[in-house]
Amino acid sequence: MKRFYKGSIGLALAAAALPGCREKAHDKPNILFIMSDDHAFQAISAYGHHLNSTPNIDRIAADGMRFNKAFCTNSISAPCRAVVLTGKFSHMNGLLDNSDRFNGAQSTLPKLLRPAGYQSAIIGKWHLKSDPVGFDFWRILIDQGPYYNPDLKDSTGTHRYEGYTTTVIGDQAIGWLDNRDKNKPFLLMVHNKAPHRNWMPEPKYFGLFSKTKFPVPENFFDDYSNRGRAAKEQEMSVIKDMTINYDLKVFPREGDSITGDDKAWEGGMKRMTPAQRTEWDQYYKTITDDFYSKKLSGEALALWKYQRYMEDYLACIQSVDDQVGRLLDYLKKNGLDKNTLVVYCSDQGFYLGEHGWFDKRFMYEESFRTPLVMSFPGMIKAGTVSEALVQNIDFAPTFMQLAGLPVPDSIQGISLLSGENRKAIYYHYYEYPGVHAVKRHYGIRTDRYKLIHFYQDIDEWELYDLEKDPHEMNNLYNDPSYTVVIAELKSNLVKLQKQYQDNEALSKN
Ligand SMILES: [Ca+2]
What we know:
Layout: H1 8-21, E1 30-36, H2 55-63, E2 65-67, E3 70-71, H3 77-86, H4 90-93, H5 109-113, E4 119-124, E5 137-141, E6 151-154, E7 157-160, H6 165-179, E8 186-191, H7 229-233, H8 274-294, H9 298-333, E9 340-346, H10 365-368, E10 372-375, E11 384-386, E12 390-391, H11 395-402, E13 424-429, E14 441-446, E15 449-454, E16 460-465, H12 483-499, H13 503-506
Parallel strand pairs: 1-8, 1-9, 2-11, 3-12, 4-5, 4-8
Antiparallel strand pairs: 2-10, 5-6, 6-7, 9-10, 13-14, 14-15, 15-16
Helix pairs in contact: 2-9, 6-9
The structure holds calcium ion.
């Protein structure tokens, strides 16, 4: 099977033809890379999950390719961003978890594309602590950034922008496109804050899903039997860890003692203008009154929390989809649509109640997998689907090949235009001890199997047969009928660790 399933031949041929047919720098393809934060593939209608409707993201899939097996390498924000920028695993680019500071002196996409004449910009979430290096233009959120009236930092300083953050980022992206040097090809990275926790929707989408009853995932009440300690000891449970005030927007009552994550409940709202706050209070007061009148507990409370979570999470995505539409319309209106590769993805996946969870981090499918759709008329056949195993290390080499540049050996990803296909992918997560208490682990995934090693304060292996157990409910590591499978996976795991030079993991096997 080729890397580009079904559409592979067209893509490979077009890619091969590129350097010869595009001799002038300004004829080189533009790259519009849109990445959201914590956008689950389950929440994109092109993926067929029917939770919501994302017509504009779906346009990219309809005009191009939907990837069903796109994955990250370390399922958490800052590391994913460093991987995208460098085309290298976390242990190679030096950014292992959200507490690390990115070393901007290293080789990154904007610098790598410069020899081909590219101008580059990044707008929106950055989250790498150091300032962007190598971009011609940058205007970024501070740390995670708020949902309303964000401060954006650029080379001149930090300024406050009034409005809903997703829209502000869209405005800035359009503004940059309008003012760019039109004689040069561009790389524009548009990084949304949404739909990251704590899921504060845009006022026009308040109540969009209030009448929708979302189907509860079949493993929402997972008791983690047949799994190890990592699944049992995490702190990302909708039932136990999702907070009523901060996450679910119920106002605390007079005299309530506010504890834990709920202490942050008012932080985002303090940034609102009085008019925004009035609208917010009006909508969420009704929800608050309803919540206190119901006096829910046990299973009823768990299900209420799930519905409430989904309403706000999906409403935030509606604004993201609007801005994707604006950008696509801009490209078309300005004659850029034919010569621009458009990518939509998320930094990683997210749990929408599967295993009873929110958040990410685990190598289990919902957080390991990311949505990925790409369009490029004339190169990617419309409406194609890829089942190839691809990873976020692949963006940098893909963009380089698209620009007609040789890909340096130090880059660990494979260009999606190369026609090469990998049989297995590698993963390594580090942020432990840390928020949500997901233990350190690494592992290998093939088309059918996943082998994970949880280490540091434990030493536990898990094996899943994704064909028989797609929801990863049954660890088969101690099942004797899988002895041969495990031995083969371990041997391939070692090969990948050597190939990617993950010496720390090699010592833990
Ligand atoms: Ca994220």
